[in-house]
Amino acid sequence: AGSCAPAGAAMRTEISTAAAFVTRLLRAAGGIGEEQLRCFRECLQEALREHYKHHWFPLVPSKGSGYRCIRINHKMDPLIGKAAGMIGLSHERLFQLLPSELTLWVDPFEVSYRIGEDGSICVLYEGPQPGGKTSKPLESRSSCKEEWGIGRSSPSKNYNMMTVSS
């Protein structure tokens, strides 16, 4: 019974993190006013909240992950497209402004993204999990410092070699 907590408050941080990230990508591309960006971010947050309402499971964070995944892969994610439409940005314009391949995972306690189909996965937000267990082994992640600003359209060929020192 406890798993049916209203998702609204619980997922606020994750949703605002995801919306702020996409907004930051648009801001970095340039040519969009701050007022439009603010409106875009609010519209996107609202669309995500609505979309995730019945698909948020803090007790099983990976459940519904595919449904919550935001994806641009030569097709525009409908939620991003909807928010952009509110400020008069066409899909064509969005494709010029955003990476052509972007995947954003918005899960309870973790928001992460990947640019390019074989890029490394970067964590944007990691919250404390109830019970203190982490959902994914962190060794498989590389920490990314604003990596998205470089090489917009070129497929990433940097395969990260992880070295383990004792």
From TrEMBL:
GO terms for biological process: negative regulation of cell population proliferation. GO terms for cellular component: cytoplasm; nucleus. SMART domains: btg1. Residues 130-149 are annotated as: Disordered. Residues 136-149 have a biased composition (Basic and acidic residues). InterPro entries: Anti_prolifrtn, BTG, BTG-like_sf. Gene3D superfamilies: Anti-proliferative protein, N-terminal domain. Residues 98-117 form the Anti-proliferative protein domain. Belongs to the BTG family. This is BTG1 protein.
